[in-house]
Write a structure and sequence with these properties.
With 380 residues, the protein is mostly helical. 48% of the residues lie in helices and 11% in strands. The chain folds into three domains: 13-64; 71-152, DNA polymerase, domain 1 (Orthogonal Bundle), CATH 1.10.150; 179-361, Intergrase catalytic core (hpI Integrase, Chain A, Orthogonal Bundle), CATH 1.10.443.10.
Amino acid sequence: MATRNPAGMPKILFDQGKNLYYTKMSYTDRVGKLCRKSLYGKNPSEVAAKIKQFNKDKDAGLIMDADKITFGQWLLRWLETDKKNSLEITSYSNYQTQINLHIIPALGGTKLKKLQRIQLQEFFNQKAKDLKPASLTLIKAIVVNSLKAATVDGYIIKSPAMALKLPTVKGKEVKPLNKVEIGALLTAGKGSPLYSMIYTAIHTGMRVGELAGLRWQDVELKAGVINVRQGVKYHQDEKAYKTGSTKTENAVRMIPINSNAVAELKRHKAKQAAEKLEFGEAYDDNGLVFTKPGGAVLSLSSVRQQFGTIVKHSGIDRRTFHDLRHTFASICISQKVNIKALSQYLGHATITITLDTYGHLLPGDKEEIAETIGTYLAGI
């Protein structure tokens, strides 16, 4: 059964099996193939509205079967096509984690064309209760950039993510170890395979991945210098930790080390040499400073677990391996080192990162301002 249609409007028919009105529209896809699309509605007016929207979308250059794809499907396609070859392996793995763990479970089933700004904002408001600011920022970047790509590729006309706002989340407070706690930690770590690694972290502020990727060829013991040139990262595809590039370009750096750190590394090198003799040909010599027994690349997750056990035995408050980096930085700041030099030593991309992370630890700033202005204006 057909209904009367306005001029230029395709025929609207009635499907008795589905008990719905419908029409069929023709369009040419991106490769020039002629395709047909059925539009259904409860009444002719609803079908007519869909015809108008169809023509509007076609004139705007949208992909006409875009209403079939979900946001989750689009995210995975965008990740594979746009990001896999442009992201460093750790960053790509992080993108995968955020998409699969947070975005898809909450929003993945929503049709891409049906996704609304309010829906996204509610998602971020909810996630702000559980996630750290850095995770929220990354998830927002993923959502915004993937939807921007969807507009470029003709799946949607306008991105629903353009006006998103991240809720204010209080970041985790940096909690460095004090001198007593450092002593307790090192005492508890004596005899542990991690001892020298922990000692070096406290004396250099190096990241755990940088320490695990450190090679003897990059350590100049006579000159008292470490050249940070690579790190260890988890490769999702191979399910293994492997050496590779550093976290960022700025992480590649030369850092001087003190005589205590040099002495500890010499002691560790001698111990490693004895281990090589014990293992003989079975030793997996990667030239790394810190390894598993037998020379294999360290598992960073195992390092963190072992470190947690040492912390527990030391009796100090719970800390992570990364807190050793914070400890190094806080010691330097307490001794009023040049903040720009510290930023370069830590391998931060900008001094802003250093100030944002450790600025609250800078001693006596307000008092110094008062004294400085008072001295300058003395006698006026």
